[in-house]
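Form P-L/3: holo structure prediction, ligand S-adenosylmethionine.
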Amino acid sequence: MPGTLFIIATPIGNLKDITLRALETLKQVDLIACEDTRHTQKLLTHYQIQKPLTSLFEHNERLKVPSLIHQLQEGKTIGLVSDAGTPGISDPGFVLIREAIRNEILVIPIPGPSAVITALTVSGMPTDRFCFEGFLPQKSAAMRRKLEQLKDEPRTMVFYESPHRVLKTLKAMLEIWGDIPIICARELTKLHEEILRKPLSEQIQHFTQSPPRGEFVLVINLRSA
Ligand code: SAM
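OUTPUT (holo model):
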């Protein structure tokens, strides 16, 4: 009998944000595939779980997948986690999951936190429809092209951003979309959680005065300006 691949969501900051099913599954699987073994080890130690870990990150995913599929075919159960939140959401996982499905291996989701949904829930913007744009392109010209393409997007949009790029992104948004309100959700579920709802120009002013720290989700709806 082939084994099972469990896709397990883990906290995006606060270690208490883990489901009972996620803990049970982490305790049951034969092996945990994770991005950074040291990072996942901290979570496991916190919950007194001892399991073998193997790393699966963006640059080794394609190389590593055949051996994981082989182990699943031999009947092992594997839990896939990422450093934070839901695997596969701007995180590795897609290649392993696709290959598992192609090889008729059972793939079971263990749902839990994701920064995109967490930020949307407190945005106060329409959430009946939304589009998740993940990280914008790194290069300025490509980022601006993408923002131009999104000019007529009627749905609420969600972006991931890092602290060292967020000001540049907010400035490009202001130039291309005008001075509309945006939600900057920072360090969600963590000690310094901050959810700022202000027009782009005021967000830029704020983060110029107090330099951005931590991880960011940006939520914007061009129709509700
Ligand atoms: N798989 C994760 C998920 O389900 O949300 C996302 C991983 S992605 C590599 C990391 C990005 O997610 C960060 O740069 C940030 O944009 C966002 N993020 C993750 N945790 C966050 C948090 N606690 N507060 C705000 N943004 C967060």
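COMMENT: The chain has two domains: 4-110, 115-224.
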